[in-house]
């Protein structure tokens, strides 16, 4: 570009501006009438758009205003008839103009985390080429009637159940100004779950506010089980708001009738057999739906990732050990579960693949539990005390269990007393173990395949031993830890010593004749790294 050239004299096709200090749209952009892509992402000070911006830039295919402070869109948005992608992620937008219905070529409408957006215009149902609609995190009262006309939708993230009784107040809402502004929209009619039935191309679906579903009949007409392409499903109930000192929902947060109804609703939301990922969040029934509790369930035979979060009333985990493709399982907020035993692997009532009353296997062709599970996590299990499973086959040989497990995470399970002994003989592929805030755990031992051990804030932990292949050890806030042994292969130890006056006894090994850590060559102390052979290497025997 010559020294006399100016930005306005150059014909741009794509322009992306990332400037945290930018307050207004530069004037030269108004002259870039050939622009196809315009992006102002991560420019949080931009609040307003020039009145004739959209009239000037009629050739736009992509418009990205994510994480700006934009509050309103111009009615002339409807002039962008070539627009394919509109991204307003995390903006302050309060209203989308009805003229959006003119954008018949729009394929991506991204509105996640728009905290001030309570309704979508009816014009949205005219976007016949829309592939992706994302409204996760926006406090919508519902979606416009007619969403079922968007036959090309493959991703619908944040389908809002409005409830048959009309719009309900938003959980935790205390902004009087927002309430007054929103009063005019409270009597709008919204679509119901029935409109999902016609969206046969859906591959990814998130449904929120399921506590508003009136009865099982309303859930049944969604016909989730008939969606031939659905691979990712998230079913969410709103978790009751509460004071910051009580994080998890409890039984007295719900009425008996609501508890019964939500169980019936979820019974009708069973997914198709092609499903690969499932997340259930905030479910408050007393038992999981039967399509989860039956090991041979065709609905979950291809499931690979399963997340169960904040289920307040279930006292028993579903039987998941016989899911043949499951490779990642995360369980969070199971506040009523006190014990995990054989029922986690198979049913105890003689169902197919389970054990009868004589304790014997009823399906001899099943040879392994959790055969492909590689990642397992338990989080916020505040009443979980016991973890055990001992299942003997007829020939007195133990059924293979967790043979593929590589990563195990335990976080904020303060009452858990011990890990199951069967981890030693079964989880032979386990490489990484992270344990945090397990305050009743006193020892961890005998994991021969482990290469990385992370221990954070375990107030009662006294011993960690017999990890012959361990390479990395990270210890933080485990004041009672006195013995670390059988870790001759460890090469790197990381400690938090900000409040310590000396190295821990288990590391220094005073009085020992043999080196405690013969392979150790790197020691990280807070922000300091020490290496063997250098002058600052501490006295470690």
Would you write up a description of this structure?
It comes from Phoenix dactylifera. Residues 165-187 are annotated as: Disordered. Residues 167-183 have a biased composition (Basic and acidic residues). This is Disease resistance RPP13-like protein 1 isoform X1. This protein is mainly beta and 541 residues long. Helix content is 8%, strand content 18%. It has helices at 53-56, 176-182, 216-220, 256-267, 290-293, 422-426, 505-508, and strands at 14-16, 37-39, 62-64, 85-87, 108-110, 132-134, 155-160, 204-208, 232-236, 277-281, 305-309, 328-332, 339-340, 375-379, 386-387, 407-411, 432-436, 443-445, 452-456, 463-465, 472-476, 483-485, 492-495, 522-525, 528-531. The protein has a 20-stranded mixed sheet, with no helix packed on it. Helix 5 links the parallel strand 10 and strand 11.
